Amino acid sequence: MTAQTATSILSDRIGRIEVSATMAVTAEAAKLRAQGVQLADFGAGEPHFPTPRHIKDAAIAAIEANFTRYTVVAGIPELRKAIVQRHACDFGSDYSADEAVFTTGGKLALFNAIQVLVDHGDEVILPVPYWVSFKDIVQYAGGKLVYLQTEESENFRITADAIEKSITPRTKVIILNSPSNPAGSVVSPGDLERIVNLAHDRGIFLLLDECYVYLQYAGTPLSGGSFVEAKEHVVVLGSLSKTYAMTGWRAGFALGPKPIIAAMSKLQSQSTSSSAAFVQKAAIAALNGSQACVVEMRADYLKLRDRILAGLAEIPGITCTTPQGAFYVYPNVSAFLGKPGAKSATELAARLLHEAHVVAVPGEAFGTQEHIRLSYAVCHNDIEEGLVRMKSFFAKLAA
User: Fold this and answer.
1) Would strands 361-362 and 372-375 be described as parallel, antiparallel, or unpaired?
2) Helix 292-313 vs helix 380-398: crossing angle, to nearest 10
3) How would you classify the pairing of strands 328-329 and 123-128?
4) Running DSSP on this structure, what letter comes out for residue 371?
5) Is residue 26 very low, low, confident or very high in pLDDT (cuts 50, 70, 90)?
6) Which letter does DSSP use for residue 157 in this model?
7) Which of 50, 158, 188, 340 suits 223 as a labelling partner, its CA being 20 to 30 A distant?
8) pLDDT tens, 212-231?
9) Distance between the two ends of the chain, CA-based, in angstroms?
10) Could you tell me the maximum CA-CA distance found in the chain, to the nearest angstrom?
């Protein structure tokens, strides 16, 4: 079957999306690694820490106890209770167990929420830069994206005033990711409260991707779910992946109004059904157990952030905002673009991979043209080696 023939028989909706750029970069890096190339890998957003021991032990115990069968689609009751209690304890929210659903990763929570809320022609406000999957998942649902441009000079800040100006009669959903991937920007408490209330007053649903909410470096972490008076129009999307170093476990959740959570569970019943039973037991251990591991990991990420920022500042031509959360930096590499073999950030990232063996994700995947994303959730030695390689690479490119 030729590519042209395959395209003609595939559905229109699959043609509206692209392969995840971060997954594509990961795959390309894997090819080089298989050839024996030693990479400084800043590509995938994945903690370098192992999953904490008590979480692994809970999964092992569940397997040994033969807790390996199907469960209810939305997650076992004690898990949903743990989700709402953890959130209430940390953020003062007020959800019941039937306002929570456990999903096979945070991305599935996002996918399901958009599928049950967005119809063809509905407008979805999406700040730029954005996480790669937001755009494609909205397009898959048939929604119309309304891009909200932010300013690098303002640390890619998202304001309530800017959100309000983007609203039209067709606005159905606003997506916020704070702290954000890729820039690590954080919506201020004042702006977040105004946006939550603005959406509530207009009958617009606010999807809050808070998978990095515990990885905030300035001020006290805040959830949009804290504003209980507006919870009717708020859907909190969470993940254990980044908080507890559980990326491969595929453990996510959503908190929201009962009708929306019920609709997400219905959709999930026809796709993945429940998440793996033993993963649910591990999630309970993560949520109910000591949170000291979260504090320790965040402290190390802060050290890694400061080191990579200092190293990037020593490379002539590169500028970078200071991320206030998550574990990414988003340096501006416009000084090097337009040179042979580096006409775009995509071309530059490819050269960086193949010539310097440094893995980065080009900014086009996040909606900007002059940046690359580097994940600093790596060991300290990799930061040092990557900085040495990048400094040499960019010096040669500037020559």
Assistant:
1) antiparallel
2) 20
3) unpaired
4) B
5) confident
6) -
7) 50
8) 999 999 889 999 999 999 99
9) 47
10) 63
